[in-house]
Amino acid sequence: MEHINRIPILTIHSNNEISQNEIPFFRGAIISKVPAEVTLFHNHLDAGFRYRYPLIQYKRIGGKAAIVCLGEGTDAIGQFFANADFDLQIGNRQEHFEIVDIDAQRVIIQPWQSEFRYTLRKWLPLNQDNYAHYQIIEGVATKAMFLQKILVGNILSMCTGLGIHLEEKISCEVTSLSDMRIYKYKGVRMAGFDLEFKTNISIPDYIGLGKGVSLGYGMVHKIRITNDKQ
Fold it and tell me: For residues 26 and 216, is the Cβ–Cβ distance under 8 A?
């Protein structure tokens, strides 16, 4: 029988308005409410950084603060709820974290015969080395192909981080690409993009790809085709 990768995912929506620049403060406020040894909230170990795909991701969804928990992260978030203190210091202001919805699912992340279309917002694909290479590439199509290979790598990294081992080949095509924008991530200026892509991998809404996913960068959303015919 074919193995199906069903991954638990918990999306916590709040009524607290937040800007993209405030997400690091939101993340820090949540981390301050849980024991330091619960590393999934911050990905730091005594010996340094935990270089794995983040299983607790802090987001801005519809202008409001949100948390996306994946796999083991869905169990770890219980440490925050057990504290029962939802008064958060976000930058210079204090807010009561007002939860309006908790969406719990078990999602399937795997290749299919068909393709799915997604948007990807504030995607940070480039490190110092490949940014220099990207800058000297000529032609929009060639640049898109370069980014496409990075995106496939990001999808594979996500799957590996969730314990999903793919035997089938990933198909992926960037279908729409914005101009490059500069974002400040951890004090460093980084190139980012908004884009649309299609792939044969099913990816849940709000999950992150690329750098900075724990701070809301690289957020995926499925493009749903509506039929307007009556």
Answer: no
Global confidence as pTM: 0.90
Same fold, 6-107 and 110-222: yes
User: How far apart are alpha carbons 53 and 214 in whole angstroms?
Assistant: 9
Give 26-80 pLDDT, tens digit per residue.
999 999 998 877 788 877 544 444 568 999 999 999 999 999 999 999 999 998 9
CATH of 6-107, one of 1.20.120, 1.20.1530, 1.10.10, 3.30.70: 3.30.70
pLDDT for res 46:
47
Domain-wise residue ranges, the chain: 6-107, 110-222
110-222 sits in which CATH class?
Answer: alpha beta
Q: What is the pLDDT of residues 166-198, one digit of tens each?
A: 888 899 999 999 989 999 888 888 999 999 999
d(CA 31, CA 42): 7
